[in-house]
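Quick one: structure for this chain?
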Amino acid sequence: NQRIGSLPMWSPVDERLAFVDSTDSAVTIIDTVSLEPVQLPSNLGDPGAWSPDGNQLIFPDILPLEDRGYNQMYRVDLARGVITTVFPISTHNDAAVAWAPSGALIAFSRQEAGSRALIGAQIWTAKPDGSGAQRVTSDYEYSHFRLAWSPDERWLIAQRFKLTDMQAEAILNMR
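Got it. Here's what it folds into:
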């Protein structure tokens, strides 16, 4: 059967494929051997990132909170069939996750809550369970997205946009 989707990603170790299914407002994971789909409700349209062992996927989605919606990170454990939040529910906007090759860390973009000023999403790192979160960048005139780790985890690359002119540039940060 054909399925209409976008942003496909192969699992790093097995026969699973994740993609955004905008028709069903979901991130869909298909086991290409059994053809069994798993649908994760998602209105954001971001398939997230696979864990290096292929057993978990972290993806952002919008959660209605207070008077508006906020991007939260969710982790699905495919072996256990459990979806949990990575971080406590908050008014931060989290997106653009990248799993480090060793599996020890994730990098993500976070637009911090608490200010009415125009604030760009900064790069943060944390353990995959959400503990040990640390801000990596502090240049609030820019929003950082499309994160990727180098294979040795020494470098993290991001695309960033200046909020006042939207010209994209790539930056490298050393861990």
